Amino acid sequence: YLYLIWKDPKTRRNFTVGKLTREKNYKFQYDGEYIDAEHYGWGKLEAFPEDKIYESEVLFPIFSSRLPDPKRRDIKKILEKYGLAQYDAYELLKKNGGRLPIDTYELISPILQNDETVQRDFFIMGIRHSASCQGKNCALLPQINVGDFLQLTPEPGNKNDPNAIQIHTSSGQFLGYIPRYYARAILERISKGLTYSCQVMEINRMDNCSECVKVRFNIPSIVK
Known about the structure:
Keywords: Hydrolase, Metal-binding. With 224 residues, the chain is α+β, with helices and mostly antiparallel strands. The chain has helices at residues 34-38, 61-64, 75-81, 89-96, 127-130, 180-191, and strands at 2-7, 14-22, 26-30, 54-56, 105-108, 118-123, 151-154, 165-168, 174-177, 197-203, 213-219.
């Protein structure tokens, strides 16, 4: 299953507001922190106005519309980018998150309790604040490059989230945080001494962005 994440545009806090599953049919229901999100101004989606389980034989249009058209000329390259041999809307949604510039939603594949190996790609949270760029001045970003390996440091004293995990460069410069929706699962694993790696995969210097540094987190570590 996938979690639907909503980011409050004011506080930039992530909330898990829904759950999308694919078994025989597709199902969607509100879940997680959606009640908390309502206190921050979030409202139910027009496609799902009631707090109930919705079911469909095909992927709900509200999600499929967030994906590239399978008839695009460059669709093969897009699928190759995400390691897909053929167009599968649900699998593509799992890979690219269905992020759009017009809102603050994304879908993520959660880390399950029994997952012994983990690989997740995500954007570093809070880097706009730590770099003081506010998403508008990329010259203020720390000196990092694609391929760099980063370090994780738990921050148990964080008043907003006791599972918070800081991300630093190899030289110790603070960049930001692991997203809240992954923090607890990752903290449990690294606290047990499991090896990990966190590598920079993309740096988007667009001078008008929400997040700019995407990393790939692996357990066990890919570094030998």
